[in-house]
Every structure is written in C-alpha cells, then in structure tokens.
Amino acid sequence: MAHGLQLGFQDATSAIMEELLHLHDHTLMIMFLISTVVLYIISLMLWTKLTHTNTMDAQEVETMWTILPAIILILIALRSLRILYMMDEVNNPLLTIKTMGHQWYWSYEYTDYEDFYFDSYMIPTSNLEPGQFRLLEEDNRTVLAMEMPIRMLISSEDVLHSWAIPSLRIKSDAIPGRLNQATLTSSRPGLYYGQCSEICGSNHSFMPIVLEFFPLDHFENWSTLML
Q1: DSSP label at 94?
Q2: CA separation for the pair 200, 202 (Å, rounded)
Q3: Do 79 and 103 sit in the same domain of this protein?
Q4: What mean pLDDT comes out for the span 60-83?
Q5: Contact (Cβ atoms closer than 8 angstroms) between residue 24 and residue 177
Q6: Which of 26, 101, 188, 193 could form a disulfide with 161 if both were Cys (CB 3.0 to 4.6 A apart)?
Q7: DSSP assignment, residue 12?
Q8: What integer is the mean pLDDT of 206-219?
Q9: Is pLDDT of 160 > 80?
Q10: CA 143, CA 156: separation in Å to the nearest integer?
Q11: Cβ proximity of 173 and 160 under 8 Å
Q12: Which of 20-24, 177-181, 222-226 is least confident?
C-alpha cells in the first residue's frame, strides 16, 4: 500500500516484483557510483589551478571510457532480459480470471467456474466505513488464493483502460477487441490496491482495483458460498 511522502516502490508481494526491486537497486548503485566519480572529476577541473597547455591524444583513456560503459550496459541488460522473460512466462496457471474494463468500473469472470462473474464499482466517499481508503475501495473485491499461479485475461468493452496493481508488478492495457494476458502470484495474504492507469474519461480516477488474497482453503470456501 502506498503512503504519503513515499520515495520508493511499494513492498513486493510477488517473486517478479522482488526481482524488479533488486534490479532497481543494482542499477541505482551503478548510477550513484558513476555520478560520484564524474562529479569528483568535474570539481577537480573547476577548482584546480593546474592547466594543461600541451594536451596530447590519450588513446588508452579513450579506449577505457568506451569499453567500460559498454560493459556496464551489458551487465544491466543481461539481468533485465532475464526478468523480462520471467514476466512473460506462463507456467500452468491454476486459475484464470477474465477482467473487462468499462466506463467506469471493472467486471470479473472466474472462467474455471460456471456462471461466476460480478461487477466492481468504487464505493462513494460518503459510504466509506472507518479504516477504508478514499477512491480505492470497491463494493465487490476480487478474492484470490495466495501462492497460486493465476492468469489474468484483460480486455475492454468501450475505451482504453489499464489494469494495474503496483505491489504485484502488474500493469496491462485493456484494449477493446484484444485480449491481453498477465500472470500473478502472491506470496502472502492481504489486500492489494490498484487503479486504472490509462486516462479513460471524466471518471477515470474512480476505477479502483482491490485484490484480496487468502489461503487456498479459505478461497475454496468463499467460491463455494458464491456459487
């Protein structure tokens, strides 16, 4: 869950999000190191009283500052490609949910069950209960099982939308006439919030997403009651 004055990412609740956070920290460390060295050299050039009147070619230095950045970029790219492959890989999902975007609400269909679908609308501010979040609560939460590979099929009935849950590393466009696929697996139970991340009209900010993860036995009991 995001909070005020937050400077970093939300806490990861999936293996892919943890990998992305590690990549971010790894890349940021390299950037800070390079920035420190460059700023140190620039400060020396600005404040030193020594000047070079006879500057000669330095092939060794030019070779070094060409090869070294290339090596750094390759190291970052290799790790990025590995994570990109993991993000697109679908390994035998145990549950499939079809998500449709509308102006301005979401509808969900549990395709592994017969006639199991519902619409989720934002709860107005005047109807919120103590402890609930403004513009982030739905009347029907999407209940899922933790530690279960889940496939999300995402599309739209009208205009472009985007289904996004930051803590799960998911952001997939909902495009009319096209079915996009995303996978998610939560490593722990809890409530995870998101919002439509594509400007889709006057009520774009009133399309929250709420996922509620339970252990498998609780999810099975809930699905039995809903059916």
Answers
A1: S
A2: 7
A3: no
A4: 88
A5: no
A6: 101
A7: P
A8: 92
A9: yes
A10: 21
A11: yes
A12: 222-226
